[in-house]
Specification:
Elements lengths: L5 E7 L9 E6 L16 E4 L3 E2 L5 E2 L13 E5 L8 E5 L3 H11 L6 E4 L8 H5 L7 E4 L20 H7 L4 H5 L1 H4 L1 H6 L10 E2 L9 H6 L3 E3 L6 E9 L6 E6 L1 H6 L11 H8 L4 E7 L10 H4 L3 E2 L6 E3 L9 H13 L3 E4 L2 E6 L2 H17 L4 E3 L8 E2 L1 E4 L2 E4 L6 E4 L1 H9 L1 H8 L1 E3 H17 L8 H16 L8 E3 L2 H16 L3 E2 L5 E10 L3 E8 L2 E9 L9 H16 L4 E7 L2 H9 L5 H16 L2 E7 L21 E2 L14
Parallel strand pairs: 8-9, 10-12, 12-15, 27-30, 30-31
Antiparallel strand pairs: 1-2, 1-8, 2-3, 4-5, 6-7, 11-16, 12-13, 14-18, 14-19, 14-20, 15-16, 17-18, 21-22, 22-23, 23-26, 24-25, 27-28, 28-29, 29-32
Helix pairs in contact: 14-15, 16-17, 16-20, 18-20
Length: 654
């Protein structure tokens, strides 16, 4: 069994010292005889010493190594401060596990062990590992890939030709950030682009020749303005890695980039489902195809031992990079389809239209020298009716266009080690963030309102606020996930495992309008049809609701209107004068736990009745339900509509 590098972090949580003692234990294993470096090496260890670089953030100063499919767990046995520790390597050998248990016996306090379980190790393999006394284990700690860099193209886009195609001017607006050093310097918040930050990269020297050969980077002849830490992350194939620069020092010094012009996911799906055919391709090493002026590349330095390097292409990790890439992609697909960063989707209502659009796209890509390739095993430029794009499987050949999650992505998310850790209640903050991000993605694609997962959203909000407010967020810290959040995540996991098809299209309008409003003491809901009020309800807030925030009262009024007045299936128009409620109903969730609980009730009832809610904002002066929240009794139905106090529109506010 081949064994490669891994690492573990452990933190002394008790004992004779009150000061945390941290160690990083490095374990060398035995390789097969037919592999180079097959000799056995001794266990090693070193102390994690915080480092301050130029008064900036703390670095861990630890080398990060890779994992192989033969998973190894490395554990450190703590001692009081100043007395050192011992390293123990543990594989799947039960006798070695037993030996580790004996070593841990008699240790006062506790030992927190954070190991790195690779993605290709199933959750069942991990869960079968015996529990260790005095330890709590949290899998899935992120580390550098340790894999060879993926082969990247040496092609460079003709950005001037691409800018000439930009009929809207959105790409020309950000092009100076690649080619004009004056415009680049003006983007710094302080106005001082001198830089001076240097954070060394660990283990990147082995990639120096690869970076030179493909023209991605070159050796720096002078000290870069920003020499930052580079690392690698695994690509989807699991065999190669991509280069990413930790550009936070540069991002902190520059102003925020403008909007990416990335379409909302729901709008993206709706636009695709208006067509019958599509051609999909993606840019080859897309970010690396964008050249950077030599005078700007000094800001994209890679701190390395011996000689720093400078990136000659668009930097992955720089906050402006996604904006530049997306706006360039929008130029290529303008009036032809959609783009999602480096994914291009050319659409057509008929086969002939799709093929004509593909021909136009090919001419644009060739004129701008953009290198593209087919996704997966598809032939390049092939027009299809069923395909997977940006994690969504589309079936446009069906009688009614439909979509669902990419089955391979759904399987990885449902059965991943991160999901197992979160459902167990003991996961790292990084694991929870990754699982929660997948939950947000899944609910958007499967059209599941997130308000049904109020406890999960509430915990994610608290954890995110704590990480944002921390001077140095500890993403590998173990967090306790509340049982209510785990139950809701388990329910969503079942939905994702089933991965049902979601039928697209716009439902027919019900022909009625729901008006809801609330004041400090009362609420009212009225249903309008054919220019008359046909039904209505009103009431007074009592109990805890009487002291609730006005936004929650508005949500309660909306819920009463949906539950009591809306029965006809179809698209139900709603008129609300509270922007917070309109936004929450539109996206299916709120930042308030209480509002999510109320909204969840409304959407469950609407779903059972086949109703799709379409909220619209109206000014308070145009809210027809407003008088009935201020002492006016409901009229006898059907009743003529009252004249609004004002016919103002939202545009009159500006």
């Amino acid at each position: 069994m081949a064994v490669t590098w891994t690492r573990a972090w452990w933190r002394w949580t008790g004992g004779p010292t009150t000061r945390p003692v941290e160690r990083v234990v490095r374990v060398d294993g035995r390789s097969r005889a037919d592999e180079p470096g097959g000799e056995r090496q001794a266990f090693g260890r070193w102390v994690k010493r915080p480092r301050v670089d130029g008064g900036k953030r703390r670095g861990d100063g630890c080398d990060r190594r890779s994992l192989s499919p033969t998973w190894v767990l490395a554990v450190g046995c703590p001692q009081p401060a100043g007395r050192g520790g011992r390293g123990v390597g543990v594989g799947r050998d039960a006798s070695r596990l037993a030996g580790l248990q004996r070593r841990l016996q008699g240790i006062a306090g506790g030992l927190a062990v954070y190991d790195e379980a690779p993605d290709n190790v199933s959750s069942s393999t991990y869960s079968s590992t015996p529990s260790l006394p005095g330890c709590r284990v949290a899998p899935g700690m992120r580390a550098d890939a340790g894999l060879p860099l993926a082969r990247v193209t040496s092609n460079r886009i003709d950005v001037e030709a691409l800018a000439a195609m930009d009929g809207v001017g959105r790409f020309r607006e950000v092009l100076p950030m690649l080619m004009d050093p004056v415009a680049f310097a003006e983007a710094f918040v302080s106005g001082d682009a001198a830089g001076g930050c240097r954070v060394p990269s660990r283990g990147m020297e082995r990639h120096r020749a690869t970076l030179r050969s493909c023209g991605v980077a070159s050796d720096a002849r002078s000290r870069p303005a920003f020499a930052m830490k580079a690392f690698t992350t695994p690509k989807k194939d699991g065999r190669t890695a991509r280069l990413v620069l930790d550009a936070r020092p540069l991002n902190d010094a520059m102003r925020r980039p403008p909007s990416m012009d990335l379409p909302r996911l729901r709008d993206f799906i709706a636009e695709v489902e208006r067509h019958r055919f599509a051609m999909q391709c993606d840019g080859v090493s897309y970010f690396y195809q964008f050249p950077v002026d030599a005078s700007i590349s000094r800001y994209f330095g890679i701190g390395m031992k011996g000689c720093d390097m400078l990136l000659n292409v668009l930097c992955m990790g720089w906050s402006w990079a996604p904006c530049i890439a997306q706006r360039a992609s929008n130029v290529l697909v303008r009036d032809l389809g959609l783009a999602w960063v480096d994914n291009f989707l050319v659409l057509g209502g008929t086969l002939d239209e799709a093929e004509r659009n593909v021909a136009v796209f090919r001419k644009r890509a060739q004129a701008a020298r953009v290198e593209v390739r087919a996704e997966g095993d598809d032939a390049l430029w092939q027009v299809r009716s069923r395909f997977v794009c940006v994690g969504v499987e589309f079936d446009l050949a069906a009688e009614t266009q439909r979509h669902r999650l990419d089955p391979s992505w759904a399987e990885r998310w449902v059965d991943g080690s991160g999901m197992t850790a979160v459902l167990s209640g003991r996961a790292t903050a990084r694991q929870f963030a990754e699982v929660f991000g997948g939950a947000v993605w899944a609910t958007d694609i499967l059209a599941v309102p997130r308000c049904h997962f109020a406890a999960l959203l509430s915990f994610a909000g608290r954890l995110g606020g704590r990480m944002v407010g921390a001077a140095a967020p500890v993403w590998d810290e173990v967090v306790d996930v509340p049982p209510s959040a785990r139950r809701e995540l388990g329910a969503l996991r079942k939905i994702v495992r089933e991965n049902p098809w979601v039928v697209g299209g716009v439902p027919e309008d019900t022909g009625s309008v729901l008006w809801t409003d609330a004041s400090s003491r009362a609420w009212a809901a009225l249903l309008e049809a054919e220019g008359r009020f046909v039904d209505g309800r009103q009431g007074v807030f009592a109990g805890p609701d009487a002291d609730a925030h006005i936004n929650l009262k508005e949500m309660l009024a909306f819920a009463e209107g949906v539950v009591r007045l809306c029965w006809a299936p179809g698209a139900q128009r709603c008129r609300i004068d509270n922007a917070a409620v309109v936004g929450a109903v539109a996206k299916g969730s709120s930042s308030s736990y209480a509002a999510n609980r109320v909204l969840s009730r409304s959407l469950r009832v609407a779903g059972r009745r086949g109703i799709v809610l379409r909220p619209d904002w109206v000014p308070s002066g145009g809210q027809l339900a407003d008088p009935y929240t201020r002492g006016t009794s409901l009229p006898r139905f059907p009743a003529q509509l009252p004249l609004p106090r004002s016919r103002a529109t939202p545009f009159d506010l500006f």
